[in-house]
Amino acid sequence: MMTIAIVDYGMGNLKSVAKAFMHVAPDQRILITSDAKEIAEADRVVLPGQAAMPESMVALNDSGLRDVLLQASKDRPFFGVCLGLQMLFEESEEGPTPSLGYLPGKSIRFPKPHFDKNGAPLKVPHMGWNALTIPAHASAHPCWAGIAQETAFYFANSYYAAPKESAVVAGTANYPDPICVAVGKANLFAVQFHPEKSADGGLRVLKNFSNWSGSL
Amino acid sequence: MLCKRIIPCLDIKDGRVVKGVNFVGLRDAGDPVEVAKRYNDQGADELCFLDITASVEKRGLLYDLIERVASQVFIPLTVGGGVKTAEDLRPLLNAGADKVSINTAGVNDPTIFDKASHFYGAQCVVAAIDAKQTRPGFFEVFIHGGRTATGKDAVAWAREVADRGAGEILLTSMDRDGAKIGFDLELTRAIADAVTIPVIASGGVGNLQHLVEGVQKGGADAVLAASIFHYGEYTVGQAKAAMRDAGIRMRM
Question: Are B42 and B2 in contact, with CB atoms under 8 Å apart?
Fold first, then answer.
């Protein structure tokens, strides 16, 4: 039986992600775990996140899981969700603690105040359903199988990743300018939206990941 | 760009969905999972559960309910009612709530917004504001389910909760609640213009045009309604289609 390990570093609600995986991958073992050995032995690893970045990175560092995550990020399907996407980069404007640094770039905040192209104010957090645009180079990514352009996903974020390499951008959404909402590089894939809260489209992405070999 | 949201609201008592009959008696309106699924299938963008359970002892039923809903309905869930401290958010979030609304406790101790936002992130902290026009041009904040006046100006209070870290405001007009004559657009507009966080308009929806007005005239980012959906007058899908046809960006 294949195992998906959802990494528990002590911050926030992991059950929603776990329940959504149980729904789409009933034939796999879904573990919420803070055990390095269980993570090391898992076939797929999920790094969730929804709390504040500084507290989350401190908790992750304290958890002693950095080594096993670094290894998993190199050799098996690895999926970041929301803050779990931002953590893959080097740093965040949200606080001084460095992030994991698997990908070059940092997380930045929406401007305050934030305006649309007509000068009308835009709300932050960026909260609600926004349409995904998949760039041509990522359209064949296995995690996007069955996902049409402009499918709406549920977001709740004030920060977003700004990758240094445009090649890792696997999806964008407009607010009002395009922001990076998905990244993919080799066996790493991550989304800024909450697939576990994005109805059928989100469940499809989770199902795709649960079947993904990690190769492109 | 973001779509506007429609949020059906369910009253929960002792782990069951209830609804008032002519605003007095409460009767059982079904299993929360079934009701949540029905609204999800109709295209609801989010669901709001308001716990009106009187006794603390039965609080566990709420956690169980959220867990059951969250294991079968994969859209955002906001839960409110009975939150007293920032620590109270954890069991709700752990059960599967995505956001927790804070009302009376926030007026009693506004630092709950700072604490909750710091620990759990602004995205899961909703400030619920019940407001009533008590003199011309003045909207006053009420707590304890609308029974206690606070003297607070709702617009100033909205700014304060946003500054303290709330990620969203659930604004209910007590004058309009249950009246079915439309949102209080003056109140909604005043709050929506005063803060940079999203505002959910609540209270007064009687038809689909009211939902359109809440967004177009009130400036709301999301609209919440209960009775028009509970009593089967309209489906969520009909409501979304009406908003889309009025030129509002919706997730269809």
Answer: no
